[in-house]
Design brief:
The protein has 278 residues and is of the alpha/beta class. The protein folds into two domains: 88 residues, Translation factors (Elongation Factor Tu (Ef-tu), domain 3); 159 residues, 3-Layer(aba) Sandwich (Rossmann fold), CATH 3.40.50.80. It is built from nine helices and 16 strands. A hairpin with a 7-residue loop joins β3 and β4. α2 runs parallel beside α9, α5 runs parallel beside α6 and α6 packs antiparallel against α8. The protein starts with a strand and ends with a helix.
């Protein structure tokens, strides 16, 4: 069992949870993830490690309440236990040798982008962050990003936070102004990462994306998280989750993700009935 130490609502649909997991905290690195079950007979879902504290022995996860498992997870409170919490899984984000990096985060993907930006900042790299949200009410980790960014561009679809527009517009303005980067790291909705990569390909800037498809076991055995990268089949759980964004077949990834929507809707309805006591 893994005890919940802290719980904080970051916006109406996103929660930060700090979990006691000393063995995971001892080995965790930015870019890696855990797989948890919110109940003994629940489904397994992957969540990226948003932060960790090796001294306290804690791991921080940030999740959006969108499906059955995140609904059940969010019903837990500090002092409750999570029955299964496995990790760290996946390959850490490679940051060695990077001196100038643009980190692009979209929506709840900013929870994954933050520990990468933090590690780069602590290593002495110049970090330019572009964070995008639909509206101000959905913003998360604003102060945290400001603390680790040399430049921070804030974008929102409706203009209520920072500038009105998409993250690609902010990144293009930086590139057009003459900014150069060893690498762009983009993390967020698949469609966002697709268009970031289309832009950086025009400018010849190496780009890494973090892919988070459906996973079950997290060891490469189930094949649920397969992707096509550079014309070859790979598995996000063991070969990733980071990949060369210019080689990822984003359209295939989006089609595969859409396949599960009816099952996810049915699971949400069942979770609602369970939480309502029916």
């Amino acid at each position: 069992m893994f005890r919940i130490i802290e719980k904080e609502r970051l916006n109406p649909t996103v929660t930060r949870m700090v979990v006691s997991a000393p063995r995971i905290a001892a080995k965790a690195e930015p870019g890696q993830f855990i797989i948890l079950r919110a109940s003994e007979d629940g489904e397994r879902i992957p969540l990226t490690i948003a932060d960790f504290d090796r001294v306290r022995g804690t791991v921080t996860i940030i999740y959006q309440i969108v499906g059955a498992t995140t609904m059940l997870l969010d019903a837990l409170e500090p002092g409750d236990d999570i029955p299964d919490f496995t990790g760290p899984l996946g390959r850490p984000t490679e940051t060695g040798g990077l001196r100038r990096v643009a980190v692009i985060g979209g929506g709840v993907g900013c929870a994954i982008a933050y520990p990468v930006a933090k590690k780069l900042h602590e290593a002495g790299a110049t970090v330019h962050t572009v964070a995008g949200f639909r509206t101000r009410d959905l913003v998360i980790l604003e102060r945290e990003f400001e603390a680790v960014s040399d430049v921070m561009k804030k974008m929102s679809d409706d203009g209520t936070w920072g500038e009105k527009g998409l993250v690609t517009a902010a990144l293009k303005s930086l590139l057009d102004a003459g900014e150069t980067y060893d690498e762009v790291i983009a993390i967020g909705p698949v469609i966002m990462m697709k268009f970031v990569c289309a832009l950086t390909k025009e400018y010849g800037v190496h780009t890494v994306v973090s892919m988070n498809p459906i996973m079950i076991d997290g060891t490469g055995m189930c094949g649920g998280c397969r992707l096509t990268v550079g014309g070859k089949t790979v598995f996000a759980c063991v070969d990733g989750p980071d990949f060369d964004g210019h080689l990822v077949d984003f359209d295939e990834a989006m089609r595969r993700g859409a396949m599960y929507r009816p099952a996810e809707a049915a699971a949400r309805e069942a979770a609602c009935r369970l939480l309502a006591g029916n």
